[in-house]
Amino acid sequence: MTRAPELSAADLDALAGHAREIAVACGRLVRDERPADLAVATKSTATDVVTVMDRRSEDLARREVALRRPADAFFGEEGVTAAGTTGITWVVDPIDGTVNYLYDLPAYVVSVAAVEGNPREPGAWRPVAGAVYNPVLEELFWARRGGGAWLTRGAAQPVPLRCGAVAPFAEALVATGFAYDAAQRAVQGEIVARLLPHVRDIRRFGAAALDMCHVAAGRVDAYFEQGLHPWDIAGAWIIADEAGLVVQGLGVPHPTPEMTLVGPASLVAGLERLLRDNPRRES
Length: 283
Ligand code: IPD
Hints:
By secondary structure, the protein is α+β, with helices and mostly antiparallel strands. Helix content is about 35%, strand content about 25%. It has helices at about 10-30, 50-70, 100, 180-195, 210-215, 230-240, 265-275, and strands spanning about 40, 50, 75, 80, 90-95, 110-115, 125-135, 140-145, 150-155, 160, 175, 200-205, 220-225, 245-250, 260-265. α1 (about 10-30) runs antiparallel to α2. The model has no long low-confidence stretch (mean pLDDT about 95). Bound molecules: D-MYO-inositol-1-phosphate (IPD). The site of D-MYO-inositol-1-phosphate has 15 residues, from β5. D-MYO-inositol-1-phosphate binds near residues 96, 225 and 232.
């Protein structure tokens, strides 16, 4: 992995500060300037949508990164990219949970992460600082490498997020999500059908970054999803990691396009066993 030059605690704090401020600025933009006409367009399938506010949020994030850290690279979900020279890339999901946003369901977030390595290559990158902001609840999840994971609600003091008592597998509340592609969904449906009898229940909130932060906050016990992209996971990966959770793929110590698993080690191992048994686990 191409690493950024050794980052001090002060460097990491500064990156986390930028991530927080940019996530909050973009989150407020999409909440406060939501137009009546979202100018919806489709991407990979008819149900994979992008709105004018995804694009405006990504443009704002790019402008903010360029002002604050002009030599860093940028990689956003909606196609804004920039090369850099520092070894740090800002990976941004300008609205994670775009379908929730479309329906005005208050479960969408902006995810902003500083990562080292090449975020386009699975296993060749890791986040060093990140922030995930839900502008409706004014909840800001954030972390930097070695600094713990935190949740700031509105103007309140940040509270630490730390993995606590671990539920037995049979009592685990497990979040997941589904791809936009119909064939992938058919496989994902089979997996959920097999998992459901073995756990407490399943939740599908509709925003991968939020799902991962929910695990860090103990609001669900574990999470898995096939087919995620770097922008879906970058901000929340460092938050889950710093909360003491495992973030991995199937048999590898990092998420892959095939699978992202998040949770305490014992629950991730249980999920992995079940998912590995799946004869059709392709994403
Ligand atoms: C999607 C959400 C959803 C997940 C999809 C993602 P988007 O991201 O995170 O929960 O199931 O796989 O693509 O399109 O809202 O940015």
